[in-house]
Records
---
Amino acid sequence: MSMKVIAYANGNPLALEIYGQELKGKMSEMDAAFVKLKKDPPHTIRDGLRSVYNSLDIESMSLDTSDLKIDVKHDVFKNMFNLRYLRIYNSSTKDVTGLNFPNGLGSLPCQLRLLHWENYPLQALPQNIDFGHLVELSMPYSQLQELAAITTKNLKMLKRIRLRHSQQLVRFDQLLYAGNIELIDLQYCTRLERFPDTSELQHLRVVNLSGCTEIKSFQGAPPNIEELHLQGTSISEIPISMVTHSSQVKLDRKKLLSILDEFEDDEHIDLESVTNMAKVSSCTRGFGKLVHLNMKDCSKLECLPDMVSLESLQVLLLSGCSRLGKIKTFPRNMRKLYIGGTAVREVPQLPQTLEFLNAHGCKCLESIDFDFEQLPRHYIFSDCYSLSSQLIAKFLEKGLTRVANLARAKQQELNEAPEVSMCIPIKARHRALFSLQFSSNAKIDLPPLIQKSLSGFAMSVVVSFKEDYHNALGFGIRCVCTWKSGDDEPDRILERFYQCWAPLEVPKVERDHIFVFYDTGMHPSASEDSRPEVTFEFHTVSWGNKLLGDTCRVTECGVQVIKPPTDGITTESEAIRIIEDDLPSRPSSREPEAKTRSLSSRDMLRKLVGCFSRVKKSRKDRTKTLTDRERSEREAFKLALNTAENAAANAVVII
């Protein structure tokens, strides 16, 4: 018990003396008495510590309230004139107040630079508080209702306000006087109904209103804002269109003259056209530097405006916008796009810069505009059941073309991630697009000729998900590649980890899915005269590369070889050509193998283009009347075959 008391008092002589007096003679009840003292320290300790601290010239104070439950006098900070950094926090996961102020709080030090106070127990700050030196105000999980007590005339030093999870907050107006504010974090302030106009705040870069369910609009965008988080709000119209629809358009003389110069006829100028052009020119005035826009789970959002002029926007999150059914255009420099769970049926042309596309749960998605040169490197179509075989084949074709050109251009630099990855639900009509065997392992032989020009592998992995699967830990595929060259050489093992879904990114899937990886970095060197047997083992793992349980397991897999084009840039028709050399598989008595074989370009295209409705050769079927859809599919299939037969000879090699 003595050691417990010393550790709790942290060696403080005054505290040890007082605790010793309180516990003296209580041998049978010492444990219970010590617990009681921890919850309610003697007044002599509090008064003694207060007198000591008041006599010191304190500049910084940090207090963990997780094990405290005490009443504090209203003038506790009265004599702490030089206190600059105050941090009161709770290191425990328990939601406890810690400090109680039965008579309120009279004041706070006027020299504070940092005020970080978790679970602040009062509804308001001390009256007429002067924050003239304050740089950061951080009071998460507070009971604050408003910030009216702050002296608004002197907030020029304030740069960051963090009041997240302050669920009693109903008013937030004082920031208009903080001319140098850079960040405002009010996420999950669920009673806040209005956010003020911030168009005059030149330095404001980040605004986070996620979880503010009563917010219905965002007016007056800061001119230099870079991140805007509106997840889970009640906004029904994206802020860009709100500015566009504004009836008040202010233009300076220079901008007005530039608009008038666009009219060829100087004598007849349509004033309505001028007004419309003025609105368009001002619609992105506050979003010209916006990089990250989060509209996730905005269930009232139904459509998006034209966003092509938002040239700085790189990340757009629209997942969970269940009413969103139409997208006109995307920002031209966007890199990441999240549209999972929306009602979108058609995706317009994707920007050339796009690297990641997550469309999980877009069950209505049927069409994607393929009028772009390259595919995103990573794209997720889990639970997208309306995708046709033709569309999936087009994605495979686009992805393979990109990989082939990258492999040639980069001269096979080793990478930690695949060049292209893809996830889709696997259906019977899709299986013909892939070379699969019912096993979690695959084996191939690599003759020396193939090794010299090897660019990597195309891997297909089918995963079966049980009904109780829930993506709490993230999901990925681990590939263990073993190269066996002969008896005289040791096996070479290369392990790759492909991260597919972040935790909760794809919460649940309903059916089996196939994951496709085009990897141009998976080719360790081998001796010129060797013919290694390469074994691939696939496992389902968490985001931290830990094996997952039986709720998801690999049931099928297939591996194919990728070779670069012999000359020039690979076109989509060239990307599906097949090498004439056959790579025989070595039989194994232990496990089934994913076999490789040589196909003609016509056969491969038949696989890539998709499983069209085949017409049987019986006389009865030949005379059967075809539906419009069958005629369309047959004509598309014939056109695709003709394209393959006319393709050039130079090709990427897939076996």
---
Amino acid sequence: MLTIRRTAIRDNTAHVGGGLLVQGDFGGLSANEATLTLEDSLVAGNSVTGRAGGLFIDRTQAAVRRTQVLSNLVTALHDSWGGGIATLGGATTTVEDSAFCGNGAQEIGGAIYADQGSALAVSGTHFYGNTGGPTSGLGGGAIAVAAASGPRPGPVTGTVSGSILISNGNGPEIWESDCNPAMWSDLLFTSNVIHATGSGVYYRNCTGLAITVPDFNAIAGKAAGNSDATPAFADFHATPATISAGGTTVLSWCTPGATGLAVDQGVGPLGQPFGVVEVTPPDTTLYTFSKGGTPAGAAPVTVACTALGTPVPRSPSNGQRSRPAGGGLTLAWHAASGAETYDVYLDTGAVPVTLVGSDVTTTSLALPPRQLATTYHWKVVAKKTGCATPVVSPVFSFTTCAGTVCFVDDFGDANVSDWAASGRGARVAIHGKMRIRGKKQLMVMSPAPAMGDGIMEAVLDFRAGHQEARFVFGYRRANAFRRLVVTGSGMLRFEERAGGRLRRIAAGRHPLPGGPFKLSLQPTGAAATVSIDGDPALTGQYAGPQSGRFGIQAIATTLMVDDVRVEGTP
């Protein structure tokens, strides 16, 4: 999970993904997609010799909000696409209230390129001055959509709505591949303002050109309610909007077809309709952007105390679920340089306003019991005597457990000593996971208390050996427990040891991916159900309910374990 806010990503070079490359695991979309949130930021002046001048988004859930993507360039002459953003590999990309100006690719997709079954949702976004290829059959200065297959079956899908596309190169504003009708995209354009000054509005490489907006709207299932106008907009921002004394921020702007552009506070005239300029204000300053002497936008820059850094929440991690609601939940954060004390705010609002800790001198705060099954947001404010403006952390969130038994372990602390081991082998923390290496058999018992109904889950990855693991549950003693056996071949088996006998309850098969998979076991009364990556795989019916502890066994196997969750009732 990658979150970037209030950041300028500028003037980088690469072969692919000049500003940022975010790529999920090749193991599959369901469990291994990356996550990107990019908000209130600037991606400008990056260039690549291959593809995706600004952002390369692959097998990723991405959200780009209130961000300017300016003057990023793909210099390759062939296989050249995605000057601003390329989204592919079945990625889901949302773009809201942003601006793409002056980006370019030598063939298609000056601003945005989508392919390989990706999902694209664009709203409230401005496209101006982006360019695709200069020759006939190329283009898509604003948006290009190709038709290659990817990990998500089917064509590119999504919507482009409530946006402005104006003067994006000499070719068509939008380019799509339709030579394979089954892969012609399901991307729908609605309620946009489109003004083409190049060859036309919409081009399909095997069908031809729709020159005007009415021609475009007449394509059933592709466009509706779009209009042609020459809109006047002005996007003007400071990134970041808060700096330390002596620090630098970047002013960025984009406005179509205007002259007499300028910024006050000593910046002066601006020569291009889009661009950036660095400023170092001595004090908090309001910069005003004007067109022909008329104010068109404003960007405040706050100059914070020089000696006070930004606190960063650490635990619970952002978006973490299944945190205990009762005692034992502690908020922790990374120290801010120069901070003397901290105020901590927490409640259920998106921006917390309830003070739960005042003048805290450490970097953690133990909380009283919270409500079950509730999402809380929290932030930390760093303070120092003599600094009039405190520094506020990003807002993090977590969700409490629905049951009174609640245990999670992502092994981020590199400590597995609280998992009691028995048998032959070893368990160690490595690369943020627990590695269990059973020579004959090794069981590690979780620190979670005994549980009856609920859910036990973990991400497992067979690495070597016999490839057999066992989820032990309802454990009371060495001769009284239940277990689920799972093998690398996909064999599943519920068993029970009681009264000195081992009894099979149910057996079946379910295909496993060739890598990590999430195993979820849910005992409810006398029944137990196992799911693999969210798909129900096997249900066993025992004689009655049985509360007990939870552990994991590796049988002559090297097993990687991550993201353990135990949640339910005693």
---
Amino acid sequence: MKLRTALTQYPFNTLCQLARDVGIDPGGSNKTILADALCRILPDPENVAKRLSSLSQEQRAMVQTLAAEGGELLEAEAVEKFANGFLPRLHAQLRDLTGLVFRDVHTLGDSDVLIGIPESLLKSIPIPDADQGRLLVILKPVSVGLLRAFADQIGLRPSDTRKPIVSNAIRDTLLDIKTLHAYLNTLSEDRRAILDLFLPANAITRSEVADKLGESAVRELEDMLWKMPIFYAPNRDLHAPNAAIYLASDLCATLSKIAQSQGGQLENSLETLLETSIAPAAIRENTAFLIQDLTTLLGIVTQRLPRRLKHGGISKTDLRDANKYCHIQDDPGYIEFLTLFAETTGLIKPHDTVWHTASDAGTQMGQIIDIRKACFDFWFHSERWNEWASDRTKATSARMQVLKNIRSEIVRSLRHCPTDTWMKYPSYYQFLTRLSEPFRHFAKDPSHTGTTADELLRRTITGALTYMGVVRVGNFPNFSTPLQQSKGAVFQITPAGYALLHDTHDDALTEQISLQNSDAKFVVQPNFEVLSPPDLPCAHYLRLCVLGDLKTQDVMACFHLSSDSIRRAFARGLSGDEIRSFLTQHSASGLPDMVDTLIAECDDKYGEIEILPAIGRVKTATRELLDELYAQPRIAQALDDRISPTIATLNNTANPESLIQILQQQGYLPHLSQK
């Protein structure tokens, strides 16, 4: 606040009286002349001291308090601080302090009036030692750009970005214990340790920081001095090498209160960092579905024999179709994770260009504990499961090594966490940052990865750790927001997760999972549907995937038998008697006549048309059947010459698989020979 600007806001009569009080004869002077004369007289230190001595104790305290706050307060705050909320009382106090404390309606406008002491007077007002170096005094000379950047750093988004407004918002935030505590939790361990050094003496030097915390902390301190306007150096340049650095006194007092509540330090012990929560209303847990969904995937592979991609894996189209039957349908990464695990552990194997289910897959799936531990080991060591990118695109070997190191740190931290306790994700992030040096280093500088530590951690918790049933998450949508906005995100380590993290052979690994029952039977219905219970042996489930088409997968799996599905079973080498025997032996309802008739009809018709792509021939059981094929244009265009009553040559442009589809659409059951 400038003295001349403040004086011009007074009426002429007030200026005349103020002039008389300081020994100036206002006679014949105009407002401008009086203002010039007062600007020369009022700032004189002797005049300021004389004016202060003439004030009552209450008035002097008001002036000194205002000076300690940098010489300016918003009127709304001054009313509460000096007049108990009564504006007329404040105005009366200001009249008694005319020429010393002014009411400025021009700088911010009528809506945000400033109460202040001009700078030329302010430097002559003594401030008690206890009130030296308060936040507003430190913030006053700081550029508005740095203030705005610092406001953003502490989580403020003020709609009014004028300097006095931003300064007051910063002060209010940092002097509030709750919001200051939240800000401290966002700082690195080194920065909190540096602030701890200020609490006993309120002043430190760079050499003291180096001796107690090391050179890395000195570099952190330098960065804090440039970016955090909460420090000062009395009568010296703050950035001078040997300067004693002070922390804002009112901020230091608030920090001391927080430290006292935590046993004397700002740096919490690891045990107190984790914040717990009540059980959330919405919980995502996959423990009961992992084995079921993996079995479903094996069934889809058994049924469809999907094509193997050049570098391994299954096409996106086939994965989307399989994902429709899984518990987690809104995350395409889930079915990809199961596929990579099945491929890596040999549950599915490539034959030529297609995938087949391993012959012992049914037996392996019965060993639930071994499967779950193998799944955890796969995630822990795999370089094929990439959490750097949301689409899991292939990463370099160097980046994957970094990722495996971070997985190791996450597992180590989870071993320190309580089981069956809901933990707030932001507090776990701080816990992991404190516990793990590699993760802390990555969190400080993620630039070489393109992914923040927060994003990677959220992706890991809601991804593989949830897929495997290591954790269950609450308020799942909150995990899609960044750290500062994910306060509602919580998670809990499951009993099975504890067993996996600590590598124990625990019965908890089979809890909530339907164990295979060798006596379990399915139900074959007259409408050609087969209902499979969850405890059906995996080998029987996989056989049903050959005989029928999976329609729904819930508590019971539902398959539909058709001529196409029976033909597929024949193509896999099963006979009609073998199909009939399997359904009869393992059905709780026997074999309905309708189903038996379907099998018999397919058995009679299957192989009447045999396609031999290796020699480019089509062979039929009778002359009449080949005549019938030539009579159908869509089929005839794939055929060339008839070289015998029952054999025709294939057109050079004909695709055997397309021809099979056309024949099936016409009601035939062709056989594709591999001879």
